[in-house]
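Support reply, case 0932

Customer input (verbatim):
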Amino acid sequence: MDIVRFEPRFLETAGRLIYETDRQLFDLFFKNPEVALEKLLRNGVCWDPERIIVASSEGEILGVLAYEIDNSKSGVLDLIRKLGPGDSLRVIMMDLIDSLSTQRVEDGDLYIASLAVAPEARGQGVGFRLLQEAQMIAEDRGLDRLTLDVSPTNTPALNLYSRFGFRLKGEKEIRILKRRFQQMELPLH
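Our regenerated output:
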Protein backbone atom coordinates (compact mmCIF):
# COMPACT_ATOMS: atom_id res chain seq x y z
CA MET A 1 0.00 0.00 0.00
CA ASP A 2 1.29 3.44 -0.94
CA ILE A 3 0.34 6.74 0.69
CA VAL A 4 0.44 9.58 -1.84
CA ARG A 5 -0.70 13.17 -2.15
CA PHE A 6 -4.02 13.86 -3.83
CA GLU A 7 -3.92 14.21 -7.61
CA PRO A 8 -6.69 15.25 -10.02
CA ARG A 9 -6.95 11.67 -11.30
CA PHE A 10 -8.33 10.73 -7.85
CA LEU A 11 -11.24 13.21 -8.07
CA GLU A 12 -14.09 10.80 -8.69
CA THR A 13 -13.15 8.09 -6.21
CA ALA A 14 -11.94 10.48 -3.49
CA GLY A 15 -15.09 12.55 -3.90
CA ARG A 16 -17.30 9.49 -3.55
CA LEU A 17 -15.45 8.34 -0.39
CA ILE A 18 -15.58 11.81 1.20
CA TYR A 19 -19.29 12.02 0.36
CA GLU A 20 -19.90 8.82 2.33
CA THR A 21 -18.34 10.37 5.47
CA ASP A 22 -21.05 13.06 5.71
CA ARG A 23 -23.81 12.00 3.35
CA GLN A 24 -26.51 13.72 5.46
CA LEU A 25 -24.98 17.17 5.08
CA PHE A 26 -24.13 16.86 1.39
CA ASP A 27 -27.61 15.54 0.56
CA LEU A 28 -29.15 18.46 2.44
CA PHE A 29 -27.50 21.03 0.17
CA PHE A 30 -26.73 19.42 -3.19
CA LYS A 31 -28.98 17.65 -5.71
CA ASN A 32 -26.02 15.67 -7.05
CA PRO A 33 -23.52 15.56 -4.15
CA GLU A 34 -20.87 13.45 -5.89
CA VAL A 35 -20.63 15.91 -8.79
CA ALA A 36 -20.60 18.81 -6.33
CA LEU A 37 -17.78 17.18 -4.36
CA GLU A 38 -15.70 16.75 -7.50
CA LYS A 39 -16.22 20.47 -8.19
CA LEU A 40 -15.25 21.38 -4.63
CA LEU A 41 -12.12 19.22 -4.77
CA ARG A 42 -11.13 20.46 -8.23
CA ASN A 43 -11.34 24.08 -7.04
CA GLY A 44 -9.68 23.50 -3.66
CA VAL A 45 -12.80 24.54 -1.76
CA CYS A 46 -13.57 22.91 1.64
CA TRP A 47 -10.49 20.69 1.29
CA ASP A 48 -7.18 22.02 0.08
CA PRO A 49 -5.87 19.37 -2.35
CA GLU A 50 -2.45 19.84 -0.72
CA ARG A 51 -4.02 18.56 2.50
CA ILE A 52 -5.47 15.34 1.16
CA ILE A 53 -3.62 12.04 1.24
CA VAL A 54 -4.66 8.86 -0.51
CA ALA A 55 -3.92 5.20 0.18
CA SER A 56 -3.59 3.25 -3.04
CA SER A 57 -2.49 -0.11 -4.31
CA GLU A 58 -1.90 -0.98 -7.94
CA GLY A 59 -3.75 2.15 -9.07
CA GLU A 60 -6.82 1.50 -6.91
CA ILE A 61 -7.79 3.98 -4.20
CA LEU A 62 -8.20 2.22 -0.88
CA GLY A 63 -8.82 5.26 1.31
CA VAL A 64 -8.58 9.02 1.63
CA LEU A 65 -7.81 11.42 4.49
CA ALA A 66 -8.41 15.18 4.31
CA TYR A 67 -7.03 17.42 7.03
CA GLU A 68 -6.92 21.04 8.14
CA ILE A 69 -4.15 22.78 9.99
CA ASP A 70 -5.71 26.16 10.64
CA ASN A 71 -9.09 27.77 10.27
CA SER A 72 -8.26 29.64 7.08
CA LYS A 73 -11.11 29.37 4.63
CA SER A 74 -11.67 30.87 1.22
CA GLY A 75 -13.19 34.34 1.28
CA VAL A 76 -16.72 34.82 -0.03
CA LEU A 77 -15.56 36.52 -3.24
CA ASP A 78 -13.07 33.73 -3.87
CA LEU A 79 -15.83 31.15 -3.33
CA ILE A 80 -18.17 32.93 -5.75
CA ARG A 81 -15.44 33.18 -8.36
CA LYS A 82 -14.64 29.46 -8.08
CA LEU A 83 -18.14 28.02 -7.62
CA GLY A 84 -20.72 30.60 -8.62
CA PRO A 85 -23.29 32.15 -6.25
CA GLY A 86 -25.54 29.09 -5.74
CA ASP A 87 -22.87 26.58 -4.80
CA SER A 88 -21.03 29.23 -2.78
CA LEU A 89 -24.12 29.78 -0.63
CA ARG A 90 -24.46 26.02 -0.15
CA VAL A 91 -20.83 25.74 0.99
CA ILE A 92 -21.24 28.67 3.40
CA MET A 93 -24.33 27.02 4.91
CA MET A 94 -22.50 23.68 5.20
CA ASP A 95 -19.60 25.43 6.95
CA LEU A 96 -22.03 27.08 9.36
CA ILE A 97 -23.64 23.76 10.28
CA ASP A 98 -20.21 22.14 10.58
CA SER A 99 -19.02 24.91 12.89
CA LEU A 100 -22.01 24.30 15.16
CA SER A 101 -21.59 20.52 15.27
CA THR A 102 -17.82 19.94 15.19
CA GLN A 103 -14.86 21.14 17.21
CA ARG A 104 -12.91 24.25 16.36
CA VAL A 105 -9.45 23.84 14.83
CA GLU A 106 -7.02 25.38 17.31
CA ASP A 107 -3.44 26.55 16.76
CA GLY A 108 -1.22 23.48 16.93
CA ASP A 109 -3.94 21.09 15.70
CA LEU A 110 -4.02 18.86 12.69
CA TYR A 111 -7.76 18.32 12.33
CA ILE A 112 -8.84 15.22 10.44
CA ALA A 113 -11.78 16.55 8.46
CA SER A 114 -12.51 13.32 6.64
CA LEU A 115 -11.22 9.75 6.74
CA ALA A 116 -12.81 7.17 4.47
CA VAL A 117 -11.84 3.67 3.45
CA ALA A 118 -13.31 1.92 0.40
CA PRO A 119 -15.72 -0.85 1.48
CA GLU A 120 -13.62 -3.56 -0.17
CA ALA A 121 -10.49 -2.39 1.72
CA ARG A 122 -11.95 -2.19 5.22
CA GLY A 123 -10.30 -4.26 7.91
CA GLN A 124 -6.95 -4.25 6.09
CA GLY A 125 -5.20 -1.48 8.05
CA VAL A 126 -5.84 1.30 5.52
CA GLY A 127 -7.39 3.69 8.02
CA PHE A 128 -4.62 3.03 10.54
CA ARG A 129 -1.95 3.68 7.89
CA LEU A 130 -3.61 6.97 6.86
CA LEU A 131 -3.69 8.03 10.53
CA GLN A 132 0.01 7.21 10.85
CA GLU A 133 0.74 9.44 7.86
CA ALA A 134 -1.36 12.26 9.34
CA GLN A 135 0.57 11.92 12.60
CA MET A 136 3.90 12.12 10.74
CA ILE A 137 2.72 15.24 8.90
CA ALA A 138 1.69 16.85 12.20
CA GLU A 139 4.97 15.95 13.90
CA ASP A 140 7.01 17.22 10.92
CA ARG A 141 5.19 20.56 11.26
CA GLY A 142 5.72 20.69 15.02
CA LEU A 143 1.99 20.50 15.79
CA ASP A 144 0.68 19.55 19.22
CA ARG A 145 -2.19 17.15 18.56
CA LEU A 146 -4.47 15.39 16.12
CA THR A 147 -8.18 16.10 16.46
CA LEU A 148 -11.32 14.78 14.79
CA ASP A 149 -15.06 14.42 15.13
CA VAL A 150 -16.86 11.10 14.71
CA SER A 151 -20.47 10.00 14.88
CA PRO A 152 -21.11 7.96 18.04
CA THR A 153 -22.93 5.43 15.84
CA ASN A 154 -19.83 4.77 13.70
CA THR A 155 -18.49 1.91 15.81
CA PRO A 156 -15.74 0.79 13.37
CA ALA A 157 -14.32 4.33 13.24
CA LEU A 158 -14.53 4.74 17.02
CA ASN A 159 -12.67 1.46 17.46
CA LEU A 160 -9.99 2.51 14.97
CA TYR A 161 -9.46 5.89 16.64
CA SER A 162 -9.34 4.35 20.11
CA ARG A 163 -6.80 1.72 18.99
CA PHE A 164 -4.70 4.50 17.49
CA GLY A 165 -4.69 6.34 20.83
CA PHE A 166 -7.37 9.02 20.42
CA ARG A 167 -9.33 9.89 23.54
CA LEU A 168 -12.79 11.41 23.93
CA LYS A 169 -12.66 15.16 24.52
CA GLY A 170 -16.34 16.11 24.37
CA GLU A 171 -19.48 16.01 22.28
CA LYS A 172 -21.48 18.43 20.13
CA GLU A 173 -24.98 18.08 18.78
CA ILE A 174 -27.52 19.90 16.63
CA ARG A 175 -30.73 18.16 17.64
CA ILE A 176 -32.93 19.61 14.93
CA LEU A 177 -30.67 18.05 12.28
CA LYS A 178 -29.99 14.91 14.34
CA ARG A 179 -26.31 15.68 13.94
CA ARG A 180 -24.13 14.53 16.83
CA PHE A 181 -20.38 14.08 17.01
CA GLN A 182 -17.91 12.92 19.59
CA GLN A 183 -14.81 15.09 19.67
CA MET A 184 -11.57 13.15 19.93
CA GLU A 185 -7.94 14.15 20.32
CA LEU A 186 -4.49 12.62 20.33
CA PRO A 187 -1.75 14.68 22.01
CA LEU A 188 1.56 14.34 20.19
CA HIS A 189 3.90 15.32 23.04
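We compared this against your earlier run and they match. Two observations from our side: The chain has one domain: 2-146. The mean pLDDT is 89. Please reopen the case if you see a mismatch on your end.
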